Amino acid sequence: MEAYTLDFAIFSLAPFFLASFALLSALPSLAADVPRYDAHLGFSVLALDIRLIIFLGFIATRCWLIGRKQANVNALDGFNLAALAYGFALYALVGLEGSNYMSLPIQFAAVLDILMIWESLIAPKLKHRMNSRQAQAVALGTTLLLLNIEDRQAATFRQRAQLISWKQRSWRTTLNEARSITTRAKENGETVNLIYSKGWFKHSDQMKALTYDRLVYYDIDTRRYIIKAGIGKGEFYTPQEGDFLVDIDTGKKLTKYGIDLSNYDVLYQEDPGRDYARIFRHR
């Protein structure tokens, strides 16, 4: 049993991750009596990048070798199996994209597989044909070549990480700007009707903490405006002149699902090149 200590230790993490999912996703959805965020994306997207393809190929090869009794099961196989199970769960819940930050655990397993391929197949051959410095130069060159190929793809992990970083900064600046705009409007004696739509802030207390007379949610599924807080809570609403529309993280879904932005003036936009992080006012 001692030989499998690491395997059991890795396997014991499964209940921890299941409990984390229950606490961070399932229970909050039940408490709010709403579907899990992006529940409609299950089985909708499957976009593999080069590392995920290598990952699947490595697993298939290992299964073939183990089945023919040409190799023994090791800790890396258990780690790959766990990453594969995570990938299936991710695909079932929100879809699987190689460039998405949620695929990072699988990407890590893929890197370990690539290192194993190098050490078991390529490195031994290089040792017989060149000295250690030349082998290191080949390894470095191969790594740089792979990174360059990956970086030229349409959507890379690095680009996605940069976009996420920008989005998180834009959320804060847009919220701060919305707070300033609505506070000034209220101080001027105006009626503040604040409209927002689907996003990470759908059930956020930060939206409710803004200054308003009515906080109105636009449901992109039913295409109806519902007053979430303030005067007439629970009633349907029709946009009118002077209303504020806050787009923190809804983006192109606004126009895709029925909001005509030609009726609105732009008061604030984090980046003119992106349809995101904006504040409008109804004419």
What's the quick description here?
Helix content is 53%, strand content 14%.
List keywords for this structure.
single chain; 283 residues; alpha/beta; 2 domains; 7-stranded mixed β-sheet; two-stranded parallel sheet; 9 helices; 9 strands; elongated
Secondary-structure element series: HHEHHEHHHEHEEEEHEE
Helix content: 40-55%
* Structural class determined from secondary elements: alpha/beta
How far is the N terminus from the C terminus?
Answer: 73 Å
Topology readout:
Blueprint: H1 5-11, H2 13-32, E1 46-47, H3 50-67, H4 75-94, E2 96-97, H5 104-129, H6 132-151, H7 157-187, E3 193-197, H8 205-208, E4 214-219, E5 224-230, E6 236-237, E7 244-247, H9 253-256, E8 264-269, E9 278-282
Parallel strand pairs: 1-2, 3-4, 3-7
Antiparallel strand pairs: 4-5, 5-6, 7-9, 8-9
Helix pairs in contact: 1-4, 3-4, 3-5, 4-5
Q: How would you characterize this protein structure?
A:
The protein is α/β, with parallel strands linked by helices and 283 residues long. It folds into 2 domains: 38-155, no CATH class; 163-282, no CATH class. It contains 9 helices and 9 strands. It has helices spanning 5-11, 13-32, 50-67, 75-94, 104-129, 132-151, 157-187, 205-208, 253-256; strands at residues 46-47, 96-97, 193-197, 214-219, 224-230, 236-237, 244-247, 264-269, 278-282. The strands form 2 sheets. It has a 7-stranded mixed sheet with strand order 6-5-4-3-7-9-8, with helices on one face. Strands 1-2 form a two-stranded parallel ribbon. A hairpin with a 5-residue loop joins strand 5 (224-230) and strand 6. Helix 3 crosses helix 4 and helix 4 runs antiparallel to helix 5. It is elongated. The mean pLDDT is 83.
